[in-house]
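Try this one yourself first.
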């Protein structure tokens, strides 16, 4: 094969999606790497992700402030959905540890029987705790200093929080299943893609769908709702109702609809 034919073959291969077996093997390998990380390294990475994902909320609050309290609801929904991907781009491209990625990814070595369920819960617990603590800190900073600096208004915290908590827990749970499902698919598609531009597009597309549909994400949503608590717009009880429902829904969506189904049909 001459050089031109080799180059054409490489370009053609790059343009094609990876085989299913390769995607699954790469996801298992990436997940095993996380299981083998030190607890402090995992916790710090998760804490960083909890802070970074908060920039989605910051941009949403900034844009909502610019649109104004009396803005058309449809316009607000579209603009805020377009703000939603920012924090995910920071976290995923920066390779920080986000809980809703691990709900799907970390299940695969368990299904392959390379790690135990206790290790899975330990990994989930560390990442979840780190994400929440980072998010709490971001909420504290943004609620106390955002209005003071002047880039967003205090009423924004309550408005955004109410859009998440004004539902029965069963509705939040079902909504969170869709969010977890989409986040699991996001991880699968990112492994399938071969270049950074494709990854950016995939992250933007899927997280915009989550934002536009109003699906409940337990980490970004924690920041949004906890900010509402700190501002006095909603109660702590609202926060716990949201957080419990969204967390279990995200886990089910990612672990069952992505990990279990993908693993089963690829290995069948």
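Now uncover the answer:
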């Amino acid at each position: 094969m001459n050089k031109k034919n080799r180059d054409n073959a490489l370009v053609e291969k790059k343009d094609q999606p990876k085989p299913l077996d390769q995607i699954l093997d790469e996801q298992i390998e990436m997940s095993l790497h996380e299981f083998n990380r030190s607890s402090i390294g995992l916790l710090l990475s998760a804490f960083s992700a909890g802070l970074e994902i908060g920039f989605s909320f910051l941009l949403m609050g900034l844009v909502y402030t610019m649109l104004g309290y009396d803005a058309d609801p449809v316009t607000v929904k579209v603009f805020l959905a377009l703000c939603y991907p920012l924090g995910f781009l920071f976290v995923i491209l920066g390779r920080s540890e986000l809980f809703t990625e691990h709900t799907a990814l970390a299940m695969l070595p368990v299904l392959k029987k390379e790690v135990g369920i206790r290790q899975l819960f330990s990994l989930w617990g560390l990442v979840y705790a780190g994400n929440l603590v980072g998010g709490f800190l971001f909420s504290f900073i943004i609620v106390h200093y955002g209005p003071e600096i002047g880039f967003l208004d205090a009423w924004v915290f309550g408005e955004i929080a109410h859009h998440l908590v004004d539902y029965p827990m069963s509705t939040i749970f079902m909504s969170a299943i869709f969010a977890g499902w989409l986040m699991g698919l996001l991880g699968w598609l990112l492994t399938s893609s071969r270049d950074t531009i494709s990854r950016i597009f995939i992250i933007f597309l899927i997280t915009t769908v989550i934002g536009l549909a109003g699906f409940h994400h337990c980490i970004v949503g924690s920041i949004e709702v906890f900010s509402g608590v700190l501002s006095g717009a909603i109660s702590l009880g609202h926060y716990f109702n949201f957080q419990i429902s969204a967390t279990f829904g995200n886990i089910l969506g990612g672990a069952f609809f992505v990990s279990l189904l993908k693993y089963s049909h690829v290995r069948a």
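Discussion: The chain has one domain: 18-267. Residues 7-12 have pLDDT under 50 and may be disordered.
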